[in-house]
Here is the input.
Amino acid sequence: MKNVTIHVTDYTGIEHRLDGLEGWRAMEVIRDYGLPIKAECGGACACATCHVYVAPEWLDKLAPPNADEEMMLDDAMAVEANSRLSCQIILGPEHEGLKLTLAPNP
Ligand code: FES
Here is the structure.
């Protein structure tokens, strides 16, 4: 498996460079690095506590959310047009350099 580096901005505005692996969920990389993401359901698309904002230049490069993700986002806090659930972003080579920002968690 190859490395995929993503950049994640935390609640204080600090950007972290995180090395993940292809096939991992962005949420898993963020959680494993100890950033404050709850991800309560463990990636089952059932909690929305892995909510992130996607940098505008990356929005078109991600596969669109499926119906389950859209439903969970409907109930999430502070949802914006660039909101996604990070457990639904499965990293591949096309995500090298992906930029995300942690969204407020309940
Ligand atoms: S971890 Fe629960 S929806 Fe992503």
The mean pLDDT is 96.
